[in-house]
Amino acid sequence: MQPDYLKLLAQFEQEFSPISRHQSVTENQLVEANNLLELLGEEIIWHETTPATNPLNKNLPSDLPKELKQALQQQGIKQLYSHQIKALKAVRQGRDIILSTTTSSGKSLSAYIPILEGVMQHDYTALAFYGLRALTSEQGQKVANLIKSIPQSTQPRLAMLTGDTNKEERERLLATNPQIIGATPELIHFALRGVHWSQPWQQFLSKLRYVLIDEAHTFNGVYGANMAALIRRLKLAVDSNGGNSNQLQFIFLSATIGNPVELARRLSSRNRQRNSTKPDRLVWINSSGAATPSRQLIVTKSSHNANPDAARIILFLLQSGQSGICFCNGRQAIKNLWSTLRQEAIQQGYSSIEKQVAIFYSSLTSQRRAEIIQQLELGQIRCIISTSSLEAGIDLPQLDYVIIRGWPGSLQAFRQRLGRAGRVKAGLAVFIPIAQLPLDNYFATHPQLLLGAPSEQVSFSTNYPIDLAKHLMCAAVETGIPVTKLKYYFGKLALTIATALMEQGVIHKSRGLLWAKGFPHKDVNFRGGINSNTVQLIDAEFGEEVESLSAEIAIHEVFPGAIYRTQNLDGQLVTYRSETLELEMGKALLQLITETQLFTIAVNRVDTCIHQELSTPKIVPLLVTTEESNGSTQVPLSIQLSLGWGEISQQVTGYQLLTRSYKLTCLQKKCVNYKEGLNNHIHCPACGKRLRKAELTTVLNEVEFEQPYAIEFSTPVVQISVSESVNRYWQEIVVRTRTQLLQTKQPIPTNYQQLWEYPAQFLVIHSFGHQILAALPLVVLSGMNDVSFRVEKRGIADYVGLFYDQVEGGSGSAEAIFKQLPKLAKVAGELARNCECESGCPKCLIQPGCPDGNKGLLKEMGLLLCDALSLTEA
Q1: What is the mean pLDDT of residues 423-449?
Q2: Which site from 275, 294, 458, 716 is most exposed, i.e. has the minimal number of CB atoms within 10 Å?
Q3: What are phi and psi of 789, to 5 degrees?
Q4: Pick from 376, 219, 342, 389: which is nearest to 784 by CA?
Q5: How far is the C-alpha of 493 from the C-alpha of 464, rounded, in Å?
Q6: What sections of 275-384 are H helices per DSSP?
Q7: In angstroms, rounded to a whole number, what is the distance separating the alpha carbons of residues 642 and 803?
Q8: In angstroms, what CA-CA distances link 222 with 23, 225, 527, 766?
């Protein structure tokens, strides 16, 4: 396209700043501001304050056990919120509850008051599930503090068990015959295997009445499916040890989600009884009586300079005497931000930054994580830069602010992060969208959705054959399964699955029970993923463990030659170079090096190989309409759909060695000096814009490994392939659309420029795959991250689409796509057309974690295939 020279000339007529563009920068020219709004100025695109609300309090019930009432009063609790009273009444009536009130509304106390009452009055026991070890310990401490206020003669016995609790301590706690046990799901998963030899466990299960599931919204996808199966096994264990699973009461505590009642029913396997005159056993409590302080939300423009922008805000708030948390999406992101923050602090003359800021992520040792939280409580640390590890559950001190650097992937996660500040006093939240990411850009242009749109739904399948088979094997080892109650405990598919397992000789029948041997528990990857092995990071000089990572993360972060950073106990960022990575040994050897501006980025590749067919490939007809001289005509075309058992190989084939500098530069994207070092200026010599500090990166070297580091897993794969005639039809549509856009003589919208950048076949298949993923939870019980889709090139100009489950052995989603693709296409088409966007957005097209980087996506192109398949469904 020819440049607009007239427009170019007009730019030179605009007045530049009266300050000389060649004036050097001095310290006294740093921006001074009285508040954050003034500091950010024109960078703000959305600013909203949610007003405070008053509490709705109720007096402590007069019929609470006297000892419990006095204990609450000693803890300073003299009244309860209205929703806490509702929860108490419902549990007293023998009902299940799902409590989904706002953050910091006292949900834990809502659960533990009726639990403690039941334990003290009726000698019941209670089992509390916590998804995180840290959450188990933190909540355990809160409950322990309340219990300590109860006279010892009636004091319930508490045991909090995590993977960090050594065997001797665990046995000591169990020997006290605890009445309340808090644990992670994985711990109970393995503990059920030893119930047969454990009198304390048998006694506990025989009296079990309450099952508390905290942070229930986290049980999504494969994690939710495994949790539901574990509860089925728990019911069987209760009945096998003299208890009554039908009298169990489930107490679910959840953040705000789109389908809390459905989630509670799926986890508990308790559906509403049809044609019953009794009230529904499940009570949903979502109206909070807790006070909520005012909360201010600021959304900035999409940032091309996210780390310096976040660092500038953190330093300003620290200098204002405030404490808070900054969330980043990943371990590397928080380390990079910490490095930038340190450099910015040095430039501003801000001392002792290492003592005031800490980084927090899951692979830190439990001791280090606990120290960071304690130092925050004591005011020694005033800012934490964290991954999603601090997103939910753990009660943090009274924080003033939260910074959200980059879209976290869902509204649910965004709102959880938002709720970390402003829990007791007025809070501030700043969202910094990242310009390079489509999801961030979408919410930067639709900020009203951040607080107004409904949260996503949680979904999973409780009847996937492989998952059920694994848990049936576990139950057959633990207690034996009564043949006559297979369906009662494990659902209608259980009989077929058990029969198949008997035919394979891994389960046998004796005295009316199904039994198995061995240790099948190790085959259950509870939270999904593709590899549950861990890699210890060892300091080469001292032989001490630095951290531990999953194998999946290790191949991306500690490959030989990788620069790896972590924060030591003094708050200083220390730098290592990885010398070796031995996945089979679960070990990586790290050499401490001096601080450097060098860093490394893994070069990734995903390979897909289908080994065998799981079903006969099928030809799915397409009905498309072509325009002829005498009118429109329907033309029959088709695609081929195949379902196979495939191997997915996620590989690191090498890495880039880069250097990072922190300089003044121009951030006007269309300027020739964009992200060029301009340290001797205040304004850009080319465009006149004021310069800003930014991270500038340069690639120094690229290394390719002789043998890639790979994580491999087997899972069902659905492949979509098209004929040459279909490809020609799509190409004709693209050419026609290009012509129409050019004829308008208007600037071509940014997203439509992809019509010139990508082949038609890639555009259609890629867009269609994303639209199917967006529609999947509406048709199939599938979590957001259960399925991946990628486009693979075959030959010179031929592409296929591949759907595959992102878990070893699959989750059932790929098979559902194979069986129900026309139905899914119909829903996907409706979803896309009903969406208010023009060319595609996160609701209908853009997907987090896209292997192809969300490039080559256009709503209109995906609809070509959605519509053609929908007609066959009709």
Answers
A1: 88
A2: 275
A3: -135, 135
A4: 219
A5: 9
A6: 306-319, 331-347, 353-356, 366-377
A7: 11
A8: 59, 5, 6, 25
pLDDT, mean of residues 428-442: 89
Neighbours of 170 (CB within 10 A): 16
Domains of the chain: 31-47+292-447 (3.40.50.300), 57-285 (3.40.50.300), 468-523 (1.10.10), 713-873 (no CATH)
Separation of alpha carbons 705 and 23, rounded Å: 48
With a cut of 50, say whether residue 6 has pLDDT above it.
no
Cβ within 8 Å of residue 847, ≥6 positions away: 770, 773, 774, 789, 854
In what order do the strands lie in the sheet containing 125-129?
A: 158-161, 180-183, 125-129, 208-213, 249-253, 96-99, 282-285
Give, to the nearest 10 degrees, the angle between helix 465-478 and helix 221-240: 30
DSSP secondary structure string for all residues of 170-217 = HHHHHHT--SEEEE-HHHHHHHGGGGGG-HHHHHHHHTEEEEEETTGG
Distance in angstroms between the alpha carbons of the first and the last residue of the chain? 44
State the Cα–Cα distance between residues 510 and 513, nearest whole angstrom. Answer: 5
Q: What is the pTM of this model?
A: 0.85
* Residue range 305-314, pLDDT digits in tens: 899 999 999 9
Cα separation, 755 vs 129, whole angstroms: 51
CA distance 560 to 100: 46
What kind and span of H or E run contains 44? strand 44-50
Determine the average pLDDT of the residues in 820-845: 89
Query: Which 3 state secondary structure label does DSSP give 60?
Result: coil
pLDDT in tens, 334-386: 988 998 998 889 888 887 888 899 999 877 777 788 888 888 888 899 999 99
Cα dihedral sign, 164-166-167-170 = negative
Q: Are 665 and 694 in contact (CB under 8 A)?
A: yes
Q: How far apart are CA 591 and CA 571, in angstroms?
A: 19
Average pLDDT estimate for 479-486: 95
Band of pLDDT at residue 710, cut at 50, 70 and 90: very high
Residues pairing with 53 in the sheet: 292
pLDDT for 148: 93
Is residue 202 classed exposed, middle or buried when 0-12, 13-18 and 19+ CB atoms within 10 A define those classes? middle
Predicted confidence band at 30 (pLDDT cuts at 50, 70, 90)? Answer: very low
Exposed, middle or buried, 311 (CB in 10 Å: 0-12/13-18/19+)? Answer: buried
Contact at 8 Å (CB) between 784 and 223? no
Closest CA to 61 of 52, 50, 51, 72: 72
d(CA 30, CA 180): 57
Q: Which amino acid is at 206?
A: S
Q: Is the pLDDT of residue 7 over 70?
A: no
What pLDDT is stored for residue 482 in this prediction? 96
Structure tokens at 155: 């004091």
How many CB atoms are closer than 10 A to CB 69?
A: 18
Question: Distance (Å, rounded) from C-alpha 334 to C-alpha 4?
Answer: 43
Single out the residue of 384, 328, 386, 389 nearest to residue 356, CA to CA. 384
* Residue 223 DSSP one-character state: H
Question: Which residue's structure tokens are 């070893």?
Answer: 808
232 vs 748 pLDDT, higher one: 232
Contact status, residue 754 vs residue 711, Cβ threshold 8 Å:
no
Query: Which residue carries 């199917």 as its tokens?
Result: 772
Q: How many helices (H) and strands (E) does the chain have?
A: 27, 30
Neighbouring C-beta atoms of residue 391, cutoff 10 Å: 22
Euclidean distance between CA atoms 431 and 297, whole angstroms: 8
40 phi and psi, to 5 degrees? -80, -35
